[in-house]
Design brief:
elongated, alpha+beta, 22% strand, two-stranded antiparallel sheet, five-stranded antiparallel beta sheet
Length: 208
């Protein structure tokens, strides 16, 4: 996981002397450190990136080492530093999804009296998050939209109940974009078939 760059870690990262160059921009190193409250030393992997004019660097600058940014990972794995870094990059979007669960769906803003009730509420939020993702796939949306964006662009709509030709109708706000812009989405939803495991398909038993 990414380590929080406290002053102690910044100092240790700046003290790394042995760097293995990966290319003209990146180099990797490592050190071991036991932080306050830890029962043992742990391995820290450092990725050093040279500052570039044409590309934004993701790491943090250290005053002691100008011209570079640094990213530090703490790990219990034994692979080479670049493998730790590459593996993290493959799953880095998980942190964005966690932030969406917290900020858009309030996954960190409730606590019920009983543990299992809290767990059930949290699992309900996770299920909603997955349904929103499946909704985007089923309707053929281009690109990923966060839950808050879906709420504002798709689900929230001012409306008023009225009558037309003796029929009860729902008048939708024009600011929402109108029903014409949503018809194709509704058609795709109506035609969508939820894929299920063969184990869940109903197979009636033969009589007898």
């Amino acid at each position: 996981m990414v380590a929080r760059l406290t002053k102690w870690l910044k100092r240790e990262a700046a003290r790394v002397q042995t760097w293995r160059v990966l290319d003209e921009t990146y180099a990797v190193g490592e050190f071991r450190l036991k932080l306050l409250g830890w029962d043992r030393e742990r391995r820290f992997v450092v990725v050093r990136e040279q500052l570039q004019e044409t590309k934004r660097s993701l790491g943090r600058k250290l005053l002691e080492v100008p011209g570079y940014t640094f990213r530090v990972f703490v790990t219990n794995r034994a692979e080479a530093p670049e493998e730790i870094w590459r593996d993290y990059n493959q799953r880095a979007c998980i942190e964005q999804r966690i932030e969406e669960l917290k900020s858009d769906l309030a996954a960190d803003d409730f606590c019920l009296r009983q543990f299992f009730a809290t767990e059930a509420a949290f699992l309900g939020i996770l299920m909603l998050f997955n349904l929103l993702g499946e909704f985007q796939r089923a309707t053929g949306m281009s690109g990923y939209r966060q839950p808050a964006t879906l709420r504002a662009q798709v689900f929230l709509c001012g409306a008023i109940l009225g009558r037309a030709a003796r029929r009860t109708v729902l008048h939708l706000s024009a600011a929402w974009g109108g029903l014409d812009q949503r018809n194709s989405m509704f058609d795709k939803l109506l035609q969508y078939e939820i894929a299920t495991s063969p184990k869940l398909q109903f197979q009636p038993l033969a009589g007898g």
